[in-house]
Amino acid sequence: METSLTKVPRIEGVDALRGFAVMAIVLVHNLEHFIFSVYPTSSPAWLQVLDQGVFTGIFALFAGKAYAIFALLFGFTFYIQSHNQRIRGKDFGYRFLWRLILLVAFATLDAAFFPAGDVLLLFAVVGLVLFFTRNWSNRALLVAAVFFLLQPVEWYHFVAHLVNPAHALPDWKVGEMYATVGEVTKSGNFWDFLWCNITLGQKASLLWAVNAGRFFQTAGLFLLGFYLGRTGHFAATEANRVFWMRILILSAVLFSPLYAWHEELMKSETFIQQTAGTAFDMWQKLAFTAVLVASFLWLYQTPRFSQAVSHLRFYGRMSLTNYISQSVIGSLIYFPFGLYLAPYCGYTVSLLIGIVVFVLQIAFCRWWLARHKQGPLESLWHRWTWIGSQK
Q1: pLDDT tens across 37-61, in order?
Q2: Is residue 267 part of a domain?
Q3: Which domain holds residue 48?
Q4: How far is Cα 230 from Cα 387, in angstroms, rounded to an integer?
Q5: Closest CA relative to residue 279, chosen from 147, 163, 143, 152
Q6: Any idea what DSSP says for residue 169?
Q7: Is the pLDDT of residue 91 over 90?
């Protein structure tokens, strides 16, 4: 099942790709004001047009795709860690369960400053699939990944509704939960804000992920990343460059019809939108994610491109630190207990703020990694993962 019995070397292209994903998340979150829907009530006509263009462009490029890249690479990282332990004759599985518990703590830290709840908690829950499949064959991993990515729950509800029109989706009251979280955020009480975020906000986030098809897609992406790591497809080789070009062509061809079918389904009745529409939304985003991943990894093997995006390697190596710190920074910029700039920042200004945050984080990463092997939160996660163990 393993591609080799030697320790997997660090792959710079993967670091850079992870950095690209976190950069995209930072930009999207700034446009969303970190799920705090307060924007200027009026602005010049030219700025309104520019704002709409910025919103459409950034969301088309990155929304739902950056998280997917992050999930894919989470599975790959699991492969690296489990493989490196396997060649020592050890099973990484139970240590990985402890690592997921630690991830819940980091998710709670991030969610405290992010009213929508945190994707890291979803990763910690869905990460169990990697534990249970860690000894499966490559073929079994690929089949399971495809099964999850097909969104079987959405299709079950769709077919059940066709058979019995009275069949309804469960109502998790996610909208009401988010409304409550929003009101607490607007109140400006810092401690109420923290408590509401790590309780109701996290609950709303997980239940929203159920409705949005994120649970099964995340599981599929985890397993796909694990599979691609097992088969050595992230390594910088000429054979892999051909592989990623083929993936790029295939995913580009699939994206257009998937997007068109999704748009048609979203004109149908609400139930179809929430079932088949959700599945096709996941698929068209997955196809575009594959375009981004394949083109990035293909281009990264060219010296000019790898040099141009070299800063993303440092950013990716500190992805956890950057991901959590951007939520803290964003809350201080946009929310009432901080500078409360949300009412003055349309999409264009918010994008510029996101770019500034990204540039400052890059500078910090380069400074920190010149003095330390890992980022501050990465180092904590690593040390706590292996506490009481002789690696």
Answers
A1: 999 999 999 999 999 999 999 999 9
A2: yes
A3: 12-385
A4: 27
A5: 152
A6: -
A7: yes
Question: 107 is written with which tokens?
Answer: 């998710």
Residues contacting 337, CB < 8 A, separation 6+: 188, 189, 190, 193, 331
- How many domains does the chain contain in total? 1
Residue 1 within any structural domain of the chain:
no
Copy the structure tokens of residue 316.
């990716």
Read off the tokens for 113: 């400053």
DSSP characters over 213-233: THHHHHHHHHHHHHHHHHTTT
Length of the chain: 391
Q: Is the pLDDT of residue 1 over 50?
A: no
CA dist list (Å): 324 to 202, 255, 277, 327, 331 = 15, 31, 32, 5, 11
Asked if pLDDT for residue 18 goes beyond 80, the answer is yes
Q: What percent of the chain has pLDDT over 90?
A: 90
Q: What is the DSSP string of 313-367?
A: HHHHHTHHHHHHHHHHHHHHHHSTTTT--GGG--HHHHHHHHHHHHHHHHHHHHH
Which alpha helices (DSSP H) does the chain contain, by range?
12-31, 45-62, 66-86, 93-111, 119-126, 128-133, 138-149, 152-163, 174-187, 190-196, 202-211, 214-230, 238-265, 270-274, 276-300, 303-308, 311-317, 319-334, 347-369, 376-385
Domain-embedded: residue 107: yes
Whether 6 is in a domain gets the answer no
